[in-house]
Every structure is written in C-alpha cells, then in structure tokens.
Specification:
The structure is a homotetramer.
Chain A: E1 3-7, E2 14-20, H1 30-41, H2 48-53, E3 57-61, E4 63-64, E5 67-68, E6 73-78, H3 86-89, H4 110-117, H5 123-129, H6 133-149, E7 154-162, H7 171-179, H8 187-194, H9 203-218, E8 225-232, H10 248-257, E9 264-266
Antiparallel strand pairs in A: 1-2, 2-6, 3-6, 4-5, 7-8
Helix pairs in contact in A: 1-6, 4-5
Chain lengths: 270, 270, 270, 270
C-alpha cells in the first residue's frame, strides 16, 4: 500500500514529505525530483515568490547510494525566504508587533479555515490552504512517476484551454491517431507543453492566450482554464468495479480534485 | 468513522449491504429506505427488469423498534426474479447447459473484467460490474440521508440536460436567488424532479428530451446527460485543506465518479 | 486489500458477513465454511444455545459454480431460534410488554454499551457485544483459510491450559522437534485437539480439566485458560518493519485481542 | 482521524515525523517534546550511542507561537553523529570502500529484511528495523500525550520485572487501593519510575536487577522483562464492540506490540 503525508506552512521553515510503501531497489536521485519541482515553477506570469523559491528537495531517508531501501522516503523542501519570515512564523515566541490578517478573501478557504479551526489570525489558515503545498505533492508524485517508468507507464499533460481559448485542432486525438501503431509515450506531451510559457501545444493558441492574460491582469482579474492529462502503457485491470471505493475513475477524480483550484474532472470525453 | 460495503451479483439471490458507524437512536424505517429505492426505479423508458425488481430492503440488523442501536446495519435487497436464475447463478452446482457469454460489449467492463479476474464467462464479470449495484448504494445512502436530516442538511438533485437539451433558464440559480433569505431545502428539487419522467424541472425541456430519446431508441442508440446535485444546510468547515485526502471537493468527486456511467464531476460552476 | 465487515445481533434474524478483496477462481463451498462453524460449536459444557444454533451459512454472493468471482462474498448465518425472538427484536414495531434488561453484568460491556450509545435497555447493547459475533468471523476467516491453503499455509490451534492446568509436556515443541525435516502441517494440531471436548492434546490433562470445570460450575464460577495458535508454511517477509502499523506481530495481536474474552497475546515464547 | 508516519534510518541524516489530525489551539512546545525524548534515553547501561544522540526535535510545521494550527505537525530528530556517517549512508554517491554487512544476527529482522527487500547489504535493512525508530514515535506520542492532558487523561508506566525479578508487592494495586477516592494520576507512576535507573518503583528490586544485569553483561547475554502501563481519567466508551477492528483492547495490543522487542501484551490481569 502506497501512501504519503505532507506537512508545512507556505512561509514556514520547510515543507516535509513522507512517502511510504514503495519497493526497494528503485533508482531515484535528487536531480530527478528537482527537475519536476522546476517544471512546477515555470510558466508565464509567475510571481516573484516562484523565483525566490527555486525549490529543491533535501532527501532525508529511504534512499541510499541512489536506490530506495523499501523504507519510507522523506524529503524537505526548504523555504528559501525563511530568514524574512522567522518572526512572523516562529513556532514558539510571539513577537509583539506581528500583524494579524483579518480580512478574508472571497473564493479562498480563509473564512472557512478560521471558523473551522477557531483561529484569530487568517494567516494561521492560509499558510496551509495555500497552493504552495502542491510542491510537496510534486516531490511525492515524482517518486510514483519514477516507479511507473519501470513498467513503461508514462503520464503527460498540457493545457487545453485558458480564458476560453482552445486550440484549433484536438492535439491529443491527432497524436493518438498518428501513433496508434508506434510506441507513443504520454510524457512527450509534457515535453512539448513545457516549451510553451502557458503549456499549450498550439503556438497560435499561445499568442492569443498571452494577450488575454495581459488584458485580464490590467483589469486585476484572473482566467480559468482546463488541462488534459494522458497516461500511456497502462495495463488492463487497474482499479476494480467490485466495490465503490476501488473504481479507478473515482480514485483519479479524487486525486485531481484535491489539487487547489481544480473544480472539475472528466474521464475520457467526459 | 462511517463506512459501508456492498455485495451481490446483478442476478444473484440478493444484494447485501452493511453500513457501519452510524450513531444509536437514529429513527429509521424500512418504508423510508424503500421509498428511496422506488425513486431509483422510476423514470421514462425503464426496462422490464426495473419492473420485476420493485426493490425493497429486508432489515437484518442494527435497528430495533424503529431506532438504530449503534451496531452495524445490514440489509438485503432480494432479486425477485431469482427463481429464474438459480440454475445460471448457483453458488455450487454447475448445470451442464448453462451458456457462457463470450462477446464483450464495447464501453463496458466486460473485457477488463474477464482479463483482470481470469474468467472464462463474461457473465462472471458483468454480474458485479452492472449498475444494479447502485440499488445497494441507495439503501446505504438513505441511512446517511436520514442522519443528515437530523442536522437540517438536505440533498436534492435533478437532471440538467439529456441529449444536449438544456432548460431555458438555469433553474437552480433562480431558486437560490428567490430563496436566499428563506429556508430553501435542496430536497424540494428532488420532489419537483420526481414529477417528471426524465427528472427535469422544465416541462418544455421534458417534451424535447422524450422526443429525442424516442428517436435514439429507434436508432438503437443512447443519450448522455448531466445532473445537478445541491446540498443545503451544510455547516462551514466540512472537509479540510490540511491534507490532500481530506478535501471535501475530492471526496465528493470520488463518490460521484464511482457511480456507473458517470464520467465527469464539477463543483460549483466547475 | 482484504477487508470484511460483519453485522447482526445475537438474537436478531441473522448475522451478515461481507468479505471483500479475495481473488477470483478460489474454490470454496458452503460445506467447507459450515465445517468450521461446527468446530466453533463443539466442546464440553456448551450451553443449550449452541445446540439450537447449529450454524450454517447461506452464500448470497461472490461465488458461482463453486469458485469465487473476485466480487465480494456475502453470507448469512440465520438465527434458528428467530421465531421466538421476533417480538423482542423486531426492527420496527415495539410490542408493549417487551421487558427491558436493567441490571448490568460485571465483566461485560453492558454498562459501557448503554452509556456509550445512550440506550435505555441493556439488551440493545449485549445483542452486539455478545460473543455470538465470532460465528460471523469464523465464516469470514474460513475464506482466508481456504485462500492460504492454496499457498500451503496452514493454521492450527489447541488449548494449552484451562483453570491453570497445563500439559505434562510442551506438545508443540515436541511436534516441531520431531518434524523439523518432515512437512509438518499446523492444521494437524487442530484435528488432534478437535478430538478432545476441551481441545487439549494431552488426555491426562483433559480429565483434570473436566473435573475442575465441574467443580467451578457447582460454585457458579468460570475458568480462564490459554490457547496456542501455530502457522506453518508461512513465507519469509510477511508484514514489515518499515512502519509501525505494518508489523506482523502487531497485526496478529490486534486480530487475536479483538476476540471476545481474549485478554493477552504472546508471540513466540512471549 | 489522527494518524502519523515516521521515516528515517538509524544512522541517516535525521528521523522525520509527520503527525496529522490534531486539533488547533493545542499548546505545545519543543521543550515538552524534548523532555520526553530525554526520558527515552535515560536508564542503566545505556550505550555510547544514547549519549551521542541527546535527541531533540526541530519543529518544522503545524505550530505557531506555541499553539497548533490544525495543520499537520512535522518534526526532525537529527542524527548528531551524521558527520561520521555521510559516506556510509549517502543518498546518492557510493564511496568505493564502504563495507557491506553480510552476517545476519539471530533474533533480528536482518535475514527477513534482506530477503523481503532483495538487498545485498544487511545495513540496508537494519537501518530501518533498528529500535532507533522509537525516538520518532516518542515525538509523535508526546503530541498525543499533550492532547490527552487537556481532558485530564494521563498515562504512566514502570518496569514490573527484569530478568525474572519482580517487586515484593504489587505496586500498582497498592496505589489504586490507596487512591481510589483521591485523584490518582497515572503520570505519577512514570515520575516515580524515572528516579530509578531501571525504572522500577521498588528500591530493593532495583539493586537485585542491576546485579543481574551486570552478571548477564559479563556473559554477553541480555535480559527480558515486563512493564506496566496505566491510564487514568479515561472516559467510559472509548473504542467499540460493534466491529472487530474498533475494539479498544485490540487497538492497544496493536500499538504496544508494534514496539521493537515487545513480544506480549496483556490487558487488566491478562
């Protein structure tokens, strides 16, 4: 049974990740994990924070001489800006002049968080509800990705639409049609998408999207979008129809929907 | 912790349901559960099977004198057509002339099932992958519904679209706008939808949908659709942002996506 | 992942068992399960209830033509005395003259049960806390036993001591010493023990124990004891030291200690 | 739901602990946790390693200004001797002259570990199977202890016997008899035991035990023993008899038996 827990506040000392249940003798390196953390930080219009972060894992356990031991893996992703946050986030001493955040933002977990946890400072809530936690998941997920590679299973993704702007053609279908008899590897979709600042495959679409982002930014607005995730090499019979909580579609929906800001999941053509 | 397991083949002797973790002293009756099973069986174009079924639970445990005991509830939903299936579904003796199903249907779990479980008769797979299992879930779910009623929490649903035919107006938004200061109960949506053979609220939409179903039927085709589920009376702070697997959206997506034939879930405006 | 739930009151209509997660194509019969239920009911000084019971399963799902389907198995063990209990245990209607039990027994879950579940009749608690539930576990466990047989894994047990009376020699050690190079099967211990009314291997010990039981009975007292469970054919590497909740010893201790009346577990020489 | 995972090799960089599910606004400090880590390291005949360790947690998340946030807590317990182990335990680079351990010790998980995980160096197994992991559990457990204090629940323990040497009187029973009407706090047992190098309450017993340890040491042998754990202030109704896996006795047995070297658990008078 594979399982993981993450911990860590957005501006805390570090994110902590424990990943449990992977087999021994799986080759994995800090470089491999870091390369996926870097992919998370790329992209058009990324804020200053992303640049300060330049996330990297510190492997604390579970790996020796480049291979897993069967014991749980643990990682830290340090907050590179911690120096500037110690006073505000200290685990023990409260500096007198630390200001509290008191105005909840709409569309965030702010109000829910302070109500649920009976907190008097919205910072106590947003530090964990922040999407920064997804860095921890990328680290955990990259172990899973490494494991799946051993079986020839590959997962790739790209942005399908942003601000309502879709590509001219359905790139995925084309790819599949053209590669039905070749060994198409879903990861190639990610490699292609990574070349674009907004992770689309269609260059014409990219220009239109960036223009729309610029306009939205001026208006102090943001844009929604959608992404496609594809897996190749998947064997028949993953998941099960025998009990409601074993259905693969349901598990996938759970994982994807647990990502901050994701509000919809469709399988196949939905 | 509330949990449940279901068991039972589509044409087996009975569906079995064990529901564990509900508190004691909750009032619940066979009539209440059966009324929800009947709602599942209503609707335009329901086949012969649905009529034979006329599902009803037999309460086996967990309830005494109309109230839960705190111990697990268990139910049977008997197959009313069992007499005609004994030979084909006997748990022990194989009658020589029982025919095997050997042609897997597209879009079903047939091929996956016999591959995964190494079966030589597709019946062995479809008997459990069948949507008949959802009757067991309705029984389990009606205990949850009864429990939520005690807290003034109500869940209702209706069909939003079928075959691409949407209502003229967004009924839900209207309802919310008109009821913001009144006590709007989501269950009233279900009551309204139950009046329609295709569970839509808009009468004009209903006519168009039924016509489209008739056409599809002639062509041996089926139609997809979408439904809206609404919950009212929900307290602030259900679920949690503190760990990926506690997110309420993710849990909801998991549950909904585990229903046979559901291929997409959206939260809010998606 | 193998899991199971049981349900059912001691004098209710039936015990219900759902066993989930066993693979397909495992041969299993009602006779096999019933033979283990009968072993549970044997023994010296068994009360009238045991005789009325003569437990047998009704297989409701998960098995077809003598083999598992991969789908969950479900069983009923009917209460053969249900006729005489309908009025007192009806799930809906309360007959006026049903007497409540109001005096909690020491050493039982009576007081705890009615406090925990806020019940006004001790019967509502004892019906589930009763050791009758172990019949459901024997049914579930016999599926596991059948499964393990396929791998040559065998589990057997016998009574080591009763009322402080131990055998003259350590039977198990002898058996192991004498069989180190032969194929010793732990099940043979059970077969041997089943010949004795008090499930001991040593005949001399048996006589002493039965005499002690008779004396205790006269005084309205009961006797404690201990039993040895042995598994043979177990492969190296079950369980894991990598995380506290995966330790095999811990899992075994959990399972054994969850049996009513068991108050101690030792592994190896303890 | 409270849960935790630990990670870390015995001579790795650090032990990592994530504790999830505790409520917000619980007061907890590094000092509190460290005081329990120190108690783990005390005792007669503790080796050099224990002295090098002088374990202390580094709080990484979940606590701000002395109170929990509701988000997961994470801790590191650094290996103070890491400098001397980097080469042998590096997660990436294998120094040529790192010696492999090839002789498995009896009574340890050595052989099992390398078989289960297909390892070619016993070090890869013993680094996780080592009892050093219990330091991580003490850190996790001290959060639970802090939480229980808020409800007046207290847990204490002492060594009952070592090398077969028991106290003259049953200290616990005396304590209970003398304190039945007073507020007896189980923690006072630990305070009393902590005064003894071998954690016994009876001074006469202590002398005899230390003499026996000295003799065993000369012979290159070790001694087994037993300890008593007592909880006071526990409310009625923890755990449940409604399902096998909810029984409090079973949960306790699981936790205790998961501690390295524990081979038996008894509840009450066993």
């Amino acid at each position: 049974m594979i399982r993981f827990l993450t911990a860590g506040e957005s501006h805390g000392k570090a994110l902590t990740i424990i990943v449990d249940g992977f087999p021994s003798n799986l080759k994995i390196t800090k470089d491999y994990i870091d390369s996926h953390l870097r992919r998370r930080q790329a992209g058009y219009g990324r804020g200053l924070r992303m640049k300060i972060e330049s996330d990297a894992v510190e492997i604390l356990s579970g790996v020796r001489f480049g291979k897993t031991l069967g014991s749980p893996l643990s990682f830290l992703i340090r907050n590179n800006d911690w120096e500037n946050w110690i006073e505000r986030m200290d685990h023990e001493t409260k500096t007198k002049n630390v200001e509290k955040i008191s105005i909840p933002r709409p569309g965030h977990a702010d109000l829910t968080g302070i109500s649920k946890f009976n907190l008097d400072d919205i910072r106590n809530s947003i530090e964990r509800s922040s999407a920064r936690e997804t860095a921890a998941r990328v680290a955990a997920g990259s172990v899973a990705r490494r494991f799946l590679e051993e079986f020839g299973i590959s997962v790739g993704s790209y942005v399908e639409s942003l601000g309502g702007i879709y590509p001219e053609n359905d790139f995925t279908l084309d790819l599949f049609d053209n590669n039905l008899n070749k060994k198409f590897n879903a990861w190639s979709l990610s490699l292609e998408a990574d070349k674009s600042d907004v992770r689309v495959i269609d260059k014409y679409q990219e220009t239109k999207i960036i223009n729309k982002i610029k306009k939205a930014k001026k208006l102090g607005d943001t844009l929604g979008g959608s992404f496609i995730a594809v897996a190749t090499g998947v064997p028949v019979g993953l998941g099960s129809f025998t009990q409601y909580d074993l259905k693969l579609n349901a598990e996938i929906a759970h994982s994807i929907m647990s990502i901050n800001a994701v509000k919809g999941v469709e399988i196949g053509s939905g």
